[in-house]
Amino acid sequence: MSAAILFWSITVAQVMLGAAMLVTLCRLIIGPRAQDRVLSLDSMYVVAMLLLVTFGMKAGTTIYFEVALLIGLLGFVGTVALAKFLMRGEVIE
């Protein structure tokens, strides 16, 4: 695979991920229920993680991959805490 094809495919992927980020931001703002907003936050951190992975591929450094892993871990914990809060009204029992 040539370098030009790889560069343009990563660029197109970043543009599409940016569009997905805008769509999830719209759902976050105009979501009718709190569950919709939590789901949009969940998908937003996944899209942000994928954007960081594509930035790391384009830049050729590993720091973006480590930050993406950190966002994945913290995003999962945040989603679980928000879901627990919406179901029971408290996070810590």
TrEMBL record:
The keyword Transmembrane applies. Keywords: Antiport, Cell membrane, Ion transport, Membrane, Transmembrane, Transmembrane helix, Transport. Its main location: membrane. It holds the Pfam family MrpF_PhaF. It is found in: Cell membrane. InterPro entries: MrpF/PhaF-like. Signal peptide: none annotated. It is a multi-pass membrane protein. GO terms for cellular component: plasma membrane. It comes from the Bacteria. The keyword Transmembrane applies. One of its GO terms (molecular function) is sodium:proton antiporter activity. The chain crosses the membrane at residues 6-26, 38-57, 63-87. Belongs to the CPA3 antiporters (TC 2.A.63) subunit F family. This is K+/H+ antiporter subunit F. It comes from Devosia aurantiaca.
